[in-house]
Design goal:
binds coenzyme A; alpha+beta
């Protein structure tokens, strides 16, 4: 689906545009993903080398898949026409899980602590609820204090901890499972 666009004022006064990605954004998003991976791969799913072989065409295909999905989406954040953040809300494919989604996100270091992460999460949760995705889960590495603080500030509750699920520099790290269900559900 295509989430509606939204603007958010950052703490430094600049304006960030939150919007769906289109296939023409692929080259910029590949650059963004490579930078994000270099900066933050220990908190994410793949090492930087994973993105060396990512082509613009492959990224355009990912964007198209999200755009054609009936409910999930890829939301991107742009400051001065540079991609600086992204968030995916991936709907579960099974019918009985039709109200459930998984959230993943990342923002470049140069715009951290500007309120962008919180704005992205709030916008994504609102857009998800609009299409019936109200039960949102995520996994976050146990050492990732900034992300944990962000998620808890947005109403996510820690459900438990998965042991030794990410191998980083030869050590196996834990991940917390978080879930958010709106009040009244
Ligand atoms: C986690 C992340 C998305 C936060 O983005 P951000 O734009 O810096 O977050 P915000 O500025 O909106 O901060 C929102 C709240 O999160 C918490 N927070 C964010 N960064 C924090 C930090 N470094 N230390 C402590 N709390 C932090 C605070 O409660 C903050 O509210 P406050 O600024 O009013 O105190 C960003 O650090 C990031 O992309 N990190 C690398 C990738 C990653 O970890 N992705 C998540 C994987 S599960």
């Amino acid at each position: 689906m295509t989430p509606v666009a939204s603007e958010v004022r950052l703490r430094d006064g600049r304006v960030a545009l939150l919007r769906a990605a289109s296939p023409e954004d692929a080259p910029q998003l590949v650059t963004f993903l490579r930078t994000l991976a270099r900066e933050s791969w220990r908190k994410l799913g793949n090492p930087p080398s994973h993105f060396d072989t990512l082509t613009d065409e492959a990224e355009a295909a990912v964007i198209t898949t999200y755009a054609r999905a009936p409910r999930g989406f890829l939301l991107t954040a742009w400051v001065e026409e540079e991609a600086v953040g992204s968030l995916t809300l991936s709907a579960r494919p099974q019918k009985l899980n039709a109200h459930c989604a998984d959230l993943g996100m990342g923002i470049l270091c140069k715009v951290h602590r500007q309120g962008l992460g919180a704005a992205l999460v709030r916008h994504a949760l609102a857009e998800g609820e609009r299409v019936g995705l109200w039960n949102v889960s995520l996994r976050v590495r146990a050492h990732n204090a900034p992300a944990i603080a962000l998620y808890e500030s947005q109403g996510f509750i820690r459900i438990g901890t998965l042991r030794a699920v990410a191998e980083i520099d030869g050590a196996f790290e834990d991940e917390h499972v978080y879930q958010r269900i709106p009040a009244g559900r």
